[in-house]
Amino acid sequence: MRKRPPFYLLVIYLAVFVMALYTGYQLWHVNHLSNRMMSADMGNAVGSAESERVIVEFLDYRCPACRAMHPIMTELRERNPDIRIIYRLFPVFEEESHPHMKIALAAGRQGMFEEAHNRLIAREDPKTEEDVAALIRDLGLDEAQFTRDRNSRALMRHLDLNFKIAMQFGIFQTPTLIIGDKITTPSMYEDGLTVERIEQLLQSAYGR
Question: What crossing angle do the helices spanning 98-108 and 113-120 adopt, rounded to 10°?
Answer without folding.
Answer: 150
